[in-house]
Design a protein that fits this description.
By secondary structure, the chain is an alpha+beta fold. The chain contains twelve helices and five strands.
């Protein structure tokens, strides 16, 4: 659903503002603030607007309150002690009230609350409270006012510290969850690639073995030409190498390089032809009207057929096989059947092929029935929902 025009315009304005937002270094900002606050304090003293009776003392102590702000990120505990303590005594000695003083004290106390350890926070807060009570004994101090001020400041500091730390913990937890999710995605993708590698290479190598066995029998009998068999072995072997290099390249590379398209049901006739050339007669039947399916289902269906035919090549012996693909309105049915005598070995071996089939079918909420047929042979029947 497209966004309303007003919302789209607001998003564009925000994007433009973010693009033109200056990238300021926080440390540089603190240095600039320290200089500005120092100038404000000194100007107020020179104009007689602050510490009128003690301009010299106020002028000398003003940089101790404003200057450390430049270093509050590097040494938050030191700045969080020096600035409030200096401010407390400057206020108690000569009633310094420049606007630069409370601003500096706020920045220093924020650094103390947010950027220090628990031990440093306790030390800095204790120093501030002690200085506030001692300043109450000075000529311009007041015990009641200092007590109220110190209490309020300590409460605010504790609240700010808890809020900021809680936000940091949540951000850290969210970052950790993103890392875990990313690692899990990588693991799942690598497992998927490993299954693809197993299915593709096992199929091709099985055909190479079958062709090599056929060639050996031809040579033993001393009849027939080995040319066609050797040509098939060469083609299948090259195909296996291409698949293996492509899969291993995906495992090794982090780049999103364009890869060859994954096989689908349109490639099943080629697969059947390869299996026939490897020595297993296969009949292919397609019922219904072929339709465009999700890529994942196409790939899974192809790999299931490939694995079933590979198993028939390995275990069925002297047999025939048939492949049926039925397109329904809301499902895809597969049936791969052979009449070989080696079904028991396939059932008891429990190799990765059958496990891979189960995983692929379960991924799409389908049904798998694989086992011996009455009499002889092995059948794999799969129902994959497509809606």
């Amino acid at each position: 659903m497209p966004a309303p025009p007003a919302a789209a315009s607001l998003d564009r304005v925000r994007a433009r503002l973010a693009a033109h937002r200056p990238n300021l270094d926080p440390v540089t900002v603190d240095v600039v603030l320290a200089v500005v606050l120092t100038l404000l304090a000194e100007i107020a003293i020179l104009r007689g607007a602050d510490a009128v009776d003690h301009p010299l003392g106020a002028a000398l102590t003003a940089p101790l309150m404003t200057g450390p702000i430049a270093f509050r990120r590097r040494w938050p505990l030191l700045v969080g002690i020096v600035v409030p303590v200096t401010g407390a005594f400057a206020s108690g000695l000569w009633a310094a009230q420049s606007v630069a003083y409370p601003l500096s004290e706020f920045m220093a106390l924020y650094a103390l609350a947010v950027w220090t350890s628990n031990r440093g926070f306790v030390i800095g807060t204790s120093a501030f409270v002690t200085a506030a009570f001692l300043s109450a004994l000075l000529p311009n101090g007041g015990l009641a006012g200092s007590l109220v001020f110190a209490t309020i400041v300590v409460i605010v500091l504790a609240i700010v510290r808890n809020v900021v730390k809680d936000r940091e913990r949540k951000a850290e937890l969210a970052e950790r969850e993103r890392d875990v999710a990313a690692r899990e995605a990588v693991v799942q993708e690598r497992a998927r690639i490993a299954r693809e590698l197993h299915d593709a290479i096992a199929h091709n190598v099985s055909m190479v073995v079958m062709q090599a066995g056929a060639e050996r029998r031809v040579l033993e009998k001393g009849s027939g030409s080995p040319h066609e068999v050797l040509e098939t072995i060469e083609e299948v072997g090259r195909g296996a190498l291409v698949e293996m290099r492509r899969m291993i390249g995906m495992l090794r590379s982090d780049r999103a390089d364009p890869l060859a398209p994954e096989p689908g049901l349109a490639d099943v006739p080629t697969l059947v032809t390869q299996v026939r050339e490897a020595g297993l007669p296969v009949e292919l039947r397609v019922d219904g009207t072929p339709s465009e399916l999700p890529l994942g289902i196409e790939l899974s269906a192809y790999r299931i057929i490939q694995e079933a035919l590979t198993n028939a090549l390995k275990h069925a012996g002297d047999a025939r096989a048939s492949v049926m693909i039925r397109y329904g309105n809301d499902s895809l049915e597969l049936e791969i059947v052979d009449d070989g005598a080696g079904a028991q070995a396939r059932v008891t071996s429990g190799g990765h092929g059958l496990v891979g089939m189960k995983e692929r079918v379960a991924l799409y909420g389908g049904k798998l029935d694989a086992g011996r047929q009455p009499g002889r042979g092995f059948a794999v029947r799969v129902l994959l929902p497509i809606r």
